[in-house]
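[agent] plan:
  1. take the single chain provided in the ticket
  2. run structure prediction with default settings
  3. attach structure tokens to the ticket
  4. add a short note for the reviewer (M.T.)
[agent] executing step 1
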Amino acid sequence: MEKIFIPRGVCSRKYIIDINDGIIEDIKIEGGCHGNLQGIAALLRGQRAQDVVDRLSGIRCGSKSTSCPDQISIALKEALEEEKLQ
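[agent] step 2 finished; step 3 output follows
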């Protein structure tokens, strides 16, 4: 299942997540700190989405109330909920 997510409050502009049976098959991130986000995406491939949510949720970027990792966790939570409905 493909999930497109528009993050809020961060530099990245769009996440395209491919999730199947709760596993992150692929994640593409547009905008933001390209090298760091490529690295995060590489680490997430093949991981259980719920494990990633548990690890990334609540991470902040400087004085912001969120971060790219936190927004990824929100996107994954939504993707998991949508996957349950299918």
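[agent] step 4 note for reviewer: The chain has a mean pLDDT of 96.
[agent] ticket updated
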